[in-house]
Amino acid sequence: xxxxxxxxxxxxxxxxxxxxxxxxxxxxxxxxxxxxxxxxxxxxxxxxxxxxxxxxxxxxxxxxxxxxxxxxxxxxxxxxxxxxxxxxxxxxxxxxxxxxxxxxxxxxxxxxxxxxxxxxxxxxxxxxxxxxxxxxxxxxxxxxxxxxxxxxxxxxxxxxxxxxxxxxxxxxxxxxxxxxxxxxxxxxxxxxxxxxxxxxxxxxxxxxxxxxxxxxxxxxxxxxxxxxxxxxx
Length: 233
Ligand SMILES: [Zn+2]
Known about the structure:
Order of helices and strands: HHHEHHEHHEHHEHEHE
Mean pLDDT: 90
Number of strands: 6
Distance between the termini: 54 Å
Low-confidence stretches: none
Bound molecules: zinc ion
Helix content: 40-55%
Largest sheet: 4 strands, parallel
Strand order of the largest sheet: 1-6-5-2
Shape: elongated
Number of helices: 11
């Protein structure tokens, strides 16, 4: 029977091949979403084991961050870029959850998350979330939560709707002007907590900076940051 089952499995995979979301190669029967080669070859930044690392340096003189880290590096040809693209634009949520779980176990094995009370994903524009159907940072957060046991709070920090004056600005102006676009909706929920803020990719760091500035207005809050990738420019 198992021979017949395997044969049927092979026929199905011939008709509907399962491909690696990072490199496009065929997946073997025991592989899920990412092939073994990509799993091994995706570079790990290991910043969670290194204080004063490149991600932390990005925020020096801009906002007070306890610790910062990224799972991998992001550039035009990186495999992690393909994964994040498939997550955000093709709607393959499982990628965010799986990568979150993988990164979460690494973080748990170091002391990076030992004093974290709550995970907060960077909020998406409500209009963007409506179109996409989900917030990728929230999915990644759920994977990290599964691995670390730290709860996710997707309510206390929210993104304000774009005002009429902001929509008139050019795309570049809006990109550089992220100050004041987030707000804390429930200060009592985050008071005296050490928050781990999660984003998919850190590029200029201005979105994170804006979130952190807003979160630090609440008494006793400390913020650390983690992302799936940091852009190497
Ligand atoms: Zn692959």
